[in-house]
Amino acid sequence: MVFLSDRDDTPLPDWYLDDGSPWEKINSYVLQLRETNSRYPIWRAIEEFPLSKDFIDGIVEEGWRVIYEPDFFFLGGITHPPQKNIILKAELKPYQRDRTLFHELAHLRHPLLLSYQTANDQKQKCEREVIVEWLGRKARADPGLLRHAVLSFGLDAYIYDKSSYQAFQGIKGQQCFSFMREEYKDILMD
Fold it and tell me: Is domain 19-156 given the CATH code 3.30.1340 in the classification?
């Protein structure tokens, strides 16, 4: 399915408006963008400057922190550069929290190329937001990166899928039993 348009006022696809957009649609959309817009500078930037442990270490050293806001009016989170805060909605469930954290980390990693504020038009805003979500979900699925981000920001570790099981088994306070290997055999992407 193609969601791109030659019109400059292309809104976010209907499937993206709901929290929890399907991974298959996000992935398909981004792969289509990459194929049809191969010269878009973000593709090179993603390869050269990935979301990494070094990046996370750097922003933590700069003073970035994660704070929670109850009844937050944004969908799940936002970055606030002047105060070096990643603000997350306090009511998020563990997977939603981690997915939102990585979404915001993707914005921080590529602040100009993936900012909706520097986009030329609504179509570009749409494309950037979907790329951010794609990049964040891919990064969150990496157990080593998930563990590093959660622990570096001093967040509670939760087990809810295969990636989080691999990331947090053996962490103090996280009980892991042999049956959990089978229970957490899938990686959540939606």
Answer: no
